[in-house]
Amino acid sequence: LLIDWINTTLKEEHIVVKSLEEDLYDGLVLHHLLENLGSLKLDVDKIALTEKKQRQKLSVILEAVSKCLQLEESQLKWSVESILTKDLLSTLHLLVAIAKHFEPNLAMPPNVQVETITIEVIIVSVFVKEDPRDLSQDFELGRNTSDDAFDELFSRAPDKLEAVKKVFLQFVNQHVVKLGLNVKDIESQFADGVILLLLIGQLEGYFLNLRDFFLTPASTSEMV
C-alpha cells in the first residue's frame, strides 16, 4: 500500500520505488515526497552521494517532518541513523505518520503487527602473545624481529585467519553496499585497487573523481 501510494504520488516525477529499505534510506524519495505532498522547500541537495551528505540530508528532512507533524522528540519512532541503516520498522513508522498527516483518507489496514528479530553480531578479537626471544633464535627460525600481529596470526594461529577475514568482510560490505557493491572475496576483489579506493572514499566522506582511475581496469598497468 505504501509503495503504491508513493509511486502514485511521484508518478509525474518518474520516480519508482520497489523497496522501502533500499529506495528511501538516502533521503532522495523522502525529499520529493514531502515537497510534493506538503509543498515543503527543503534546503538540501536533491542527490547526496556520500554517507556524510546523506546523514545531513536526512537530518534536515526529519526535522521538517517533526515540525510539520508537530511531534515532540519523545514521540518519534525513527531517527536519522535508523533510516540511514535501512531499518524497515523505522521507515514504516515514518511513512505511516506522513501518510496519516497528508493523506488521512488513505485506506490503511487496521491492526497491523510486525514481529522484529534482533541479531547481535559479536566481533572476533585476536590476541597475540609475544614471547621474548634472542636474535639468534629468530634467525634459526627464519623469522624477522619486525613481525607484527598479522605475521603472528599467519604463522601461529592460521585457524583464526578465516574468522578475522569474515570480520573484515563485514566491515567492508557495511560501507560499500551504499554504492551497490558486494565483496565476497577479499583477495580477488581487492586485487585491482578499485574497491579499496571506493572504500576509502566512503570512510573519509568524499567523492572520488572516476576520471582519476580506471573503474574497470583491463590490464596490470591500469590496476597500478
TrEMBL record:
GO cellular component terms attached to this protein's record = actin cytoskeleton; cytoplasm; focal adhesion
Gene Ontology MF terms: actin binding
| InterPro entries registered for this protein in UniProt | CH_dom, CH_dom_sf, Parvin
The main location class comes to: cytoplasm
Lineage: superkingdom = Eukaryota
User: Which positions fall inside the Calponin-homology (CH) domain?
Assistant: 1-103, 162-224
Keyword Cytoplasm assigned to the entry: answer is yes
Per UniProt, the keywords (alphabetical) are: Actin-binding, Cell adhesion, Cytoplasm, Cytoskeleton, Repeat
Which compartment or compartments is the protein found in? Cytoplasm, Cytoskeleton
One record GO biological process: establishment or maintenance of cell polarity regulating cell shape
* Record-stated family: Belongs to the parvin family.
What protein name does the entry list?
PARVG protein
Q: Which organism is it from?
A: Ceyx cyanopectus
- What is the taxonomic lineage of the source species? Eukaryota, Metazoa, Chordata, Craniata, Vertebrata
What is the gene called? Parvg
